[in-house]
Design goal:
By secondary structure, this protein is an alpha/beta fold. Helices cover 29% and strands 16% of the residues. The protein has one domain: Rossmann fold (3-Layer(aba) Sandwich).
Amino acid sequence: MINVLTGNKKLLSSFPRDRVGSVSRTPIKSCPGAPKGGCVFSGKACYCLRIGAMYPSVRKHWRAMDSLGFRLWAAVGESIDSQRVTVFRPFSSGGDFLNQRDYNSFCSMVAKRPDVKFYAYTKSLHLDLWSRKPINLVLLQSEGGRYDHLIDYSKLVARVGVGFADGSEDDSVAAAGVSVSLKAH
């Protein structure tokens, strides 16, 4: 079993009455929708890579999650059940859906847990994100990637900067199904 309970202060403060879970993957190599070379905001390199540089435990977590390959979501589901997670956000410190098979596996895991609130940011907009999306999954399309031309603005969007509700300090805004603006993503 893997530990999915998060120590992420933003997530914990956003959901103080919940058991919050998250997993991540190594940034850039597991971010198919990111711009070439990784995300950049205000001249700074990928936020997730900076987090990994500061916290060795995050790098260790990335390696462990990457090693699971396509078994990742089955293992995450078992851990969500055993650790009684009530809110779950994938990729809080790196990564994205690798391909359609990965996303479909994630959706299958989500659909089996209707009492858990799931929400995710993604730049993998080239995937079919909507036909299999379970009702208990809030999905936000993230601006700033190589597939921005595929963003459907009639659905939820996350952007760095301004223009939407501020989700920089409180992720419960995004989980509630509101488009958000972030300081970095």
